[in-house]
Write a structure and sequence with these properties.
The chain is mostly beta strands. It has two helices and seven strands, in the order βββββββαα. It has a five-stranded mixed beta sheet with strand order 2-3-4-5-6. A two-stranded antiparallel sheet has the order 1-7. A hairpin with a 6-residue loop joins strand 4 (54-68) and strand 5. The longest helix is centred in the C-terminal third of the chain and has 10 residues, at 117-126.
Length: 174
């Protein structure tokens, strides 16, 4: 027997009147499949504008993740935010291009629900910065003694030269 999971972030559009509707959600990261790096609740604000031919969805989501700094290896919490829009159209009224660069998804006229779980999970995962820094001014670890230079000053002398320039030093006499 297969286990069917129901989306946590689900909006019933079947009996929704035309116009704008707001849906605030709050859930645990694991409930939508986010990794254990996400340590703060996922907060979602969804706004739907419904007409008889289409449903325009605008979503803003936020959470916080526990990460290790790429320079000093300390752990820190990074606030993550994501936003996206999707235009849902029925099969009969699917435009070839909306001209606004939005994602367009075709749904059947008898669609009852819009599930946000997977999209929110993907957008929050993509919001993780490629370079994770505890602060912009992080000093990192000392290359000689390994201390965290944000907490301790060391007396190590590090000559910072790029070995790719060594050949040019021969010409300057150094």
């Amino acid at each position: 027997m297969a286990v069917v999971s129901v989306a946590v972030l689900r909006i019933n559009i079947s009996k929704m009147s035309e116009g704008e509707h707001q849906f605030p959600f709050e859930t645990e990261p694991a409930d939508i499949g986010l990794s254990e790096q996400f340590v703060q609740k996922v907060r979602v604000q969804a706004v739907i504008e419904k007409s008889n031919r289409q449903v325009f969805l605008e979503v803003r989501a936020s959470s916080g993740g526990l990460f290790s700094c790429d320079r000093c290896l300390d752990q820190f919490i990074e606030k993550l935010e994501a936003a996206y829009t999707i235009l849902y159209v029925t099969e009969n009224h699917a435009p070839s291009d909306d001209g606004g660069g939005r994602e367009i998804q075709v749904i059947s006229p008898d669609t009852n629900y819009i599930d946000l779980d997977e999209d929110v999970r993907q957008y929050l995962t993509l919001a993780i910065p490629q370079k994770l820094l505890c602060s912009d001014g992080c000093k990192g670890l000392c290359l000689k003694c390994g201390v965290n230079r944000n907490r301790v000053s060391c007396s190590c002398q590090i000559e910072e030269t790029d070995p790719r320039w060594d050949t040019l030093k021969k010409f300057s006499g150094n």
